[in-house]
Amino acid sequence: MSAPRSAREAGLVACTRCSRVWPMGTERCGRCGSHLVSRDSRSLSRVWAWWLAGLMCYIPANMYPMLVTSTLMSSQSNTIVGGAIELVEHGAPVPGLIVLVASVCIPIGKFIAIAWLALSVRRGSRAQPRRRQHVYEIVEYIGRWSMIDVFVVAILTALVQLNVVASIHPGPAALAFALSVIFTMLSAQAFDSRMIWDRIDEARA
Amino acid sequence: MAEHDDLAQLIACPHCDALYHVRLPEEGERAVCGRCHSVLIRPRKRAGMRIIMIAAAVAVLVVGAVWFPFLRISRAGFSNDATLLGTALSFGTGPLALLSVAVTLMIVLLPLTRALLLIYVLGPIVFDRAPRVLARPAFRLSEALRPWSMGEIFALGCAVALVKVADLAQLSFGPAFWMFSALVVLTVVQDRTLDRWSVWQALEPQPLPPQDHAAAIADPASRAGTPA
């Protein structure tokens, strides 16, 4: 099977929401009403803006406490990493690892992956477009799962309110972390993955 | 409109912009982009009816899960019930109240909104009526909300939180917990059943001429079609 032509090469503009094609220059998709652009030239600046916002929120998210646990004797505050390590030490390695992966590995991997994708589009890259597309899909799919730590804090806060015996309160890092996840999700959504494939289109043209 | 009719026979991969002639795969098969391997078309038998049923069940379960107690812990004579809404709103006042709003949206309001939107959009289609006036913006909204509806992530969060609490106090599950678990499974099934392209096709202001459509269905091909 010969390599397919892109809609842009055929003088058409495609709707990324419903995959209908229209003549180049059409403003709105006649089927779903989405705004049409062949390639979103401002896509990269939006990617970087959300990326930076996400990174700026990720730093305080790791410095401030996520959870404050008060029991009869003591009060203890945990950061994201501290809480996960404590879970592992308490003999619950699997949930500890889930939290560690969801709130440390995934966010950091996401920052690196989005930056790499955005740079590779601008500079041109020797990496296979298919591999880059794959990375993008993983980033889009997995990014939401970082929110799990915020939900854990919400459940614990609502549940563990046993007067003086034990109580748990959220720390400021919860807000910073949630914002960081939301911003990086927006950053990934702003990326126009069709640009990954443009280099080979141009090379063939 | 001749030109537009021709364009209706084409499909562009939303991920890599590759252009294809539409050739409907058989029931249960998938049309895949030959370049980036995204799934383009995935028709399912009676998918519309199934999705409406699931959406109705989701709506009922969300309301139920909000109403009934979710989890209960007890230790040393003290006990505490948590409802789903209480969990979502647990961040209290101050700047953390923003989080309460976000969590309420993600685990209660958005799943409910998406279920209602899908019923609104697909209802007339399933019963062979003309789509509703706002069906197209409604489906667009439902699709835009999809990544922000995080029921399944909340469910995994429950599991982690339960392990954390287990050595602190005694735990018991309320009916809402089981409702919410069912809801998560249903939502995943729903997303697997929903074929976006078929829905948009059904919402097309001028549907494909019937004879072309029949020919397309008769053509057995698992790929999206021939490069245009």
From TrEMBL, chain A:
Record bears the keyword Transmembrane: yes
Subcellular location: Cell inner membrane
Span of the signal peptide: none
Alphabetized UniProt keyword annotations: Cell inner membrane, Cell membrane, Membrane, Transmembrane, Transmembrane helix
Domain of life: Bacteria
Cellular component aspect of the GO annotation: plasma membrane
Residue stretches spanning the membrane: 48-67, 97-121, 142-166, 172-191
PANTHER family: INTERMEMBRANE TRANSPORT PROTEIN PQIA (PTHR30462:SF3), INTERMEMBRANE TRANSPORT PROTEIN PQIB-RELATED (PTHR30462)
Protein name listed in UniProt: Paraquat-inducible protein A
Taxonomy of the source species: Bacteria, Pseudomonadati, Pseudomonadota, Alphaproteobacteria, Rhodobacterales
TrEMBL record, chain B:
Domain of life: Bacteria
Source organism of this protein record: Pseudoroseicyclus aestuarii
Protein name: Paraquat-inducible protein A
Keywords recorded for this protein, A-Z: Membrane, Transmembrane, Transmembrane helix
InterPro entries linked: PqiA-like (IPR007498)
Organism ancestry: Bacteria, Pseudomonadati, Pseudomonadota, Alphaproteobacteria, Rhodobacterales
One Pfam family named in its UniProt record: PqiA
Transmembrane segments: 51-70, 96-127
Keyword Transmembrane helix listed: yes
